[in-house]
Design goal:
mainly alpha; Rossmann fold; 6 helices; 48% helix; globular
Length: 113
């Protein structure tokens, strides 16, 4: 997994990483993160990467306040707002990655309050 923002500089910066993965014969997927909400930038970045032969994860991580607020006290988005959009995006990415690496999806028990 190669995390990358959907910006020109970041997309260009991962070229070497993609080439190294290819040379090593390892699968590599770009995970677009901090994608601006209500924007076509993520879609455009994914199309551009795919057009250059890169594999792109089908789920993107949107720039959401929950990610910023959760790290203030060391929590994840799932801990900060378990039913929020940020948590759902992370859950979707986790489940997709489990499928890629042929790992069963396991439910995680929440701590009792």
């Amino acid at each position: 997994m190669i995390p990358c923002r959907a910006s020109t500089f970041d997309l260009e910066a991962i070229e070497t990483t993609l080439l190294l993965a290819k040379a090593a014969g390892k699968p590599a997927y770009v995970v677009l993160n901090a994608v601006p909400p209500r924007s076509g930038i993520g879609r455009e970045a994914a199309e551009g990467l795919t057009g250059r032969g890169a594999k792109v994860a089908p789920c993107q991580i949107t720039q959401r306040a929950a990610f910023t607020h959760s790290v203030i006290d060391g929590r994840t988005a799932q801990e900060f707002e378990p039913e929020g959009k940020a948590a759902a995006e992370i859950r979707q990415l986790y489940e997709w990655i489990c499928g890629i690496v042929d790992m069963p999806i396991r439910g995680h028990a929440r701590k009792a309050a």
